[in-house]
Amino acid sequence: MKTVIMAGGRGTRIASLNAEVPKPMIRIDGKPIFEYQMECLKKHNLTDIILVIGHLGNIIEEFFGNSGQYGVYITYVREDVPLGTAGALYYMKDIITDDFLLINGDIIFDVDFSLFLAAHRRNHSLATIFTHPNSHPYDSGIIVADKDRFVTKWLTKEEERKWYKNRVNAGMHILSPTILKRFEIPEKKDLDRDILKPLIAERQLSVYDSPEYVKDMGTPDRYYSVEQDIKSGLTAKRNLSVKQKAIFLDRDGTVNKYVGFLKSIDDLVLLDGVSEAIKMINKSGYLAIIITNQPVIARGEVSWEELTEIHNKMETLLGNEGAYIDDIFCCPHHPDRGYAGERTVYKKVCDCRKPKPGLILQAAKKYNIDLHESWMVGDSFSDMEAGRNAGCNIAYVGTENVKDILAASNLLECIRKIFEKVEIK
Ligand SMILES: [Zn+2]
């Protein structure tokens, strides 16, 4: 697979840090961004790189050359006139004949590209966007997709939204070469507006949701946080080819206020300190994953659409405070039949209803999680048992007297105690 990196634009957004340097040459911990990018691509055998350069591009060319010394091969495409974030793809028409990776020049990433490519092939669409939750969804464009991962809406940051899933474009894409036929002349084009968004109506644009590390350096603050993450090793730890650690969180009574069966979206209220607690998890290198029994589906009291909206509200409230969850696993089943309005298809004995470990095992498989290094946190004994059954460490949130279990009266205190134990500051 060929990789195209768009590095033509000026690094104006962080110009205050590096005045006259093209984006790929901005140094983090002494090393240019492009060098980090190449290292990760090389690790996944993506050695055929096309670098689109413009303003001050000669500095990049002089520094890296064809980059035999890094074990990759670079072809340069020089823009004399800036062609925006996609216009230069016109020049790839004859060079690229297979699915290719398209990457923004100002991001730091550590990603298992084989998984991304496999997802793209599974999607059977012309383009797949690498998407993820971030810590500032309220001022980011939000991508809405259906259950088959096709994009149905792409909200700009100015557009009104109420409750939404925290899903943001990370700046990496896999495109089919068919798309290149749409470039008729070399002219200025915006990747999102002119190329990707028109694919929505054709049902040809998909998402790949991943918790791996991809961050842009849009502001000086974000630049410094990326530098810190590189130094601490967090970027590499999040690559799904290496074993992950997770903190699994029960939902009702742990994250949001317990109201019995939660049927109305208005009843979803976050508990105090939960955003702070989840933010701590987000920064730690652990994944934050919700594990919840929702028999309200089997009971016919809440539809899948309503449940999705309830979870969108939870993600929005967390996102407003800079916190996000990496995924939600949900058991819709219930074993007892014979009630009015029930959905019999979900009335069965399943493997995923806590205290069974099914949901945790599903998450472990999806994200390559080491369960012995992970924690299940909840407010009930069935949470504790599910965690134990899955081979996780367990922690209890609540006021009961429990023996030999890490316990705290609220989630924030609980996460602090866990991190003291595993020595995360
Ligand atoms: Zn189930």
Structure, explained:
With 425 residues, the protein is α/β, with parallel strands linked by helices. It folds into two domains: 2-222, Spore Coat Polysaccharide Biosynthesis Protein SpsA, Chain A (Alpha-Beta Complex); 243-421, Rossmann fold, CATH 3.40.50.1000. The protein is built from twelve helices and 19 strands. The chain has helices spanning 33-43, 57-64, 113-123, 191-196, 198-201, 220-232, 234-237, 274-284, 304-320, 358-367, 381-390, 411-421, and strands spanning 2-7, 27-28, 31-32, 48-53, 73-78, 100-104, 107-110, 127-132, 142-145, 151-155, 168-175, 205-209, 213-216, 245-249, 286-293, 327-331, 375-378, 393-397, 406-408. Strands 5-4-1-6-11-8-12 form a seven-stranded mixed sheet, covered by helices on one side. The protein has a six-stranded parallel sheet with strand order 16-15-14-17-18-19, with helices on both faces. Strand 4, helix 2 (57-64) and strand 5 form a beta-alpha-beta unit. Helix 8 (274-284) runs parallel beside helix 12. The longest helix has 17 residues, at 304-320. The two termini are 40 Å apart. The chain binds zinc ion.
Write down the CATH topology of the largest domain. Spore Coat Polysaccharide Biosynthesis Protein SpsA, Chain A
How far is the first residue's CA from the last residue's CA?
40 Å
Specify the biggest β-sheet.
7 strands, mixed
What fraction, in percent, of the residue positions are helical?
Answer: 25-40%
- What order do the strands of the largest sheet run in, or round the barrel if closed? 5-4-1-6-11-8-12
Top-tier CATH class of the largest domain: Alpha Beta
Specify the structural class. alpha/beta
- Under CATH, the homologous superfamily of the largest domain reads Spore Coat Polysaccharide Biosynthesis Protein SpsA, Chain A
- CATH architecture heading of the largest domain: Alpha-Beta Complex
* Total count of domains: 2
| Ligand species | zinc ion
Radius of gyration: 23 Å
* Extended strand count: 19
Low-confidence stretches: none
Report the sheet-strand fraction. Answer: 15-25%
Report the mean per-residue pLDDT as an integer: 93
Question: What is the general shape?
Answer: globular
Number of helices, where a helix is a run of at least 4 consecutive DSSP H or I residues:
12
